[in-house]
Amino acid sequence: QVQLVESGGGLVQPGGSLRLSCAASILSFSRYVMAWYRQAPGKQRELVATIEASGRINYADSVKGRFTISRDNANNSVYLHIDNLKPEDTAVYYCNVWATAYWGRGTQVTVSS
């Protein structure tokens, strides 16, 4: 059974940083494209970043330059480092096995002074 567990969210002041983690219980993790999404209050879930098995990375235009996705295949984990957090980054952040119905429960990120 596939399980994704996100962690690392919290309340952060504008300009701060966070590192989100996603631990994946999935066979052959290294073969999968992994993704981070986020859903802000009252808005649709949006794709933030993907990282392919090859290491190729894509970011949403809205987060380029501040978000960094990475993965550790030895530990079946994917990460999202966020710098210079802004109030508009406030959302629940979800881990996803790309193009599948496998989702974590999310981790809340709140950016507020």
Describe this structure in words.
By secondary structure, this protein is mostly beta strands. Helices cover 0% and strands 49% of the residues. The protein has no helices and ten strands. The protein has strands at residues 3-7, 10-12, 18-25, 34-39, 46-51, 57-59, 67-72, 77-82, 91-97, 107-111. The strands form two sheets. A six-stranded mixed beta sheet has the order 2-10-9-4-5-6, with no helix packed on it. Strands 1-3-8-7 form a four-stranded antiparallel beta sheet, with no helix packed on it. Strand 4 (34-39) and strand 5 (46-51) form a beta hairpin. The N and C termini lie far apart (40 Å). The model has no long low-confidence stretch (mean pLDDT 96).
